[in-house]
């Protein structure tokens, strides 16, 4: 009887299935058809008959209840067991079996197992990885299952692919993990000794006196201390011997092979032969020189006899002397024998260690705990300085050239102060030249009124004298003295020492200068000279305002009289007097305690600046002179620009707009001159009639007379004399 075709009555197992794919079991390997994988499931991913699904996670992870993946929970956690295996040796009479030791590693992250055999020297067996890491199945009849962590313990036998391993111990981490899992650990056992290895060891011990194995390896010391050198600064006092002296040495101790080399530090112009080494690199014996040894006396090994085969002149081996009878023992210096203050024997020479470098100090502090590194002075006392005497000047050439011919066999030219010349040479608007107006001090009526310009050049301390040319004076004028260095008067001509020359500090207004027999009185100086001397008042005390005022403070008793004299001299009540009146008053009251230069310094400190642009005609004349010099004629264009900016056609513009227009058009006028011109044409509202302003500046249409040059001999200065109380004048 057939059942109705209804849900629940059908026996077809494919009802409700969605996957019907067939996994690939067969493939090609080296062009041969073969079964590639038997573990793949059947149709639709279902397991085949008698097929079990392999566990994907560690059994221990499921019991712990950890949700993290095993490769995260048990990363780098491996159980290590010590085991051994009895390997039979049937074809050898010396041994029947051999004990082989192994390391069994169990990886908790995926329950894989790896077996390694540690290497044994001269075993003759292939050692290393015995079983590679993978899942190892249980022995039959449970070969469909795999080993887990619960199959391991101490003092048990475990079988891997027919090999029976005896686990006798494990490490501490493995014991802790097994205890946490609840596994009761057995007592650890011992691995039996391999009879063959025991026999070989006894045999080697028996033949050791005949064939001793001695190692002379220095590779470890070389790798640890390569390029590490101890450096000591030494002294060898050889002054007691004939033609001997104190020698400074540098000792280097090479830690890589315990060798020493010594170099000599030669002073400048010592006259000694420059040898590269006082002692070449090698081991230094403590008790040297020990004498001359025959070849073969100093060796590392003592050979008793040699033996060979039947062939003539053939040596197969040699016998060594274990007790080294008759060997020459030598003691060499080590790093522990070297320290500051120690005297060492360098082949009969007594060398004192005086100091060492920082690396040597840190090495001894680390290795030997030494903290005291007090150095010993190895420098000899300075020899007495012998004063060198030179012959007097002969009169040929300059004194410097004659002196250079006495210093060496090959005369060399005198070396000038090049740095001073570079710093004080003129460049740009900085001349580094001091100029003074002077006159001759003479009784000759024809030379009394002659005026001169004395120029002192700071770059090389030279001096020149120039006489201005004056028409119809009867004097030629021009260069009076070319640029040379001028000696101070009263010096001997033919002497051994160099002559002294006039310095810049000796020049000031009011000073008398003797130039090759001509006596000059310095009357005045130009503006650059006065500014330079006031800027460097430490070198020019006459230009120091502080020192000048200190001299005035000494006249505190005359302060009331000085105040009344200044009030009487100021008739117009302007609180100003001219320079000549100011000079006469101070010179009369101070009774010559102040020099002319100090008076000029005080006057410049309290002077009232002149308004050089008081008259508008003078300003326009100065502007025309600059326009002519630069051939500037673009005045119509300037007026056109102003008309363009004048939107309301008022014929006036603000002062700032006119100044900006002049600056943008690059008028060849200085800032002060342009400001003064604009102030003269500015009205009360700050406006300027640009047509009248630029027409006045047009030197083609409205020329003005040229200015007369100002005389360089005219002294113009004013000072501001404040009506101060007597106490305040004394402190100013």
Automatic annotation (TrEMBL):
<keyword id="KW-0282">Flagellum</keyword>
<keyword id="KW-0206">Cytoskeleton</keyword>
<keyword id="KW-0963">Cytoplasm</keyword>
<comment type="function">
    <text>Microtubule inner protein (MIP) part of the dynein-decorated doublet microtubules (DMTs) in cilia axoneme, which is required for motile cilia beating.</text>
</comment>
<keyword id="KW-0969">Cilium</keyword>
<comment type="subunit">
    <text>Microtubule inner protein component of sperm flagellar doublet microtubules.</text>
</comment>
<dbReference type="GO" id="GO:0005879">
    <property type="term" value="C:axonemal microtubule"/>
</dbReference>
<feature type="domain" description="DM10">
    <location>
        <begin position="430"/>
        <end position="537"/>
    </location>
</feature>
<protein>
    <recommendedName>
        <fullName>EF-hand domain-containing family member C2</fullName>
    </recommendedName>
</protein>
<dbReference type="InterPro" id="IPR006602">
    <property type="entry name" value="DM10_dom"/>
</dbReference>
<feature type="domain" description="DM10">
    <location>
        <begin position="75"/>
        <end position="182"/>
    </location>
</feature>
<keyword id="KW-0966">Cell projection</keyword>
<dbReference type="InterPro" id="IPR011992">
    <property type="entry name" value="EF-hand-dom_pair"/>
</dbReference>
<dbReference type="InterPro" id="IPR040193">
    <property type="entry name" value="EFHC1/EFHC2/EFHB"/>
</dbReference>
<keyword id="KW-0677">Repeat</keyword>
<dbReference type="Pfam" id="PF06565">
    <property type="entry name" value="DM10_dom"/>
</dbReference>
<feature type="domain" description="DM10">
    <location>
        <begin position="226"/>
        <end position="368"/>
    </location>
</feature>
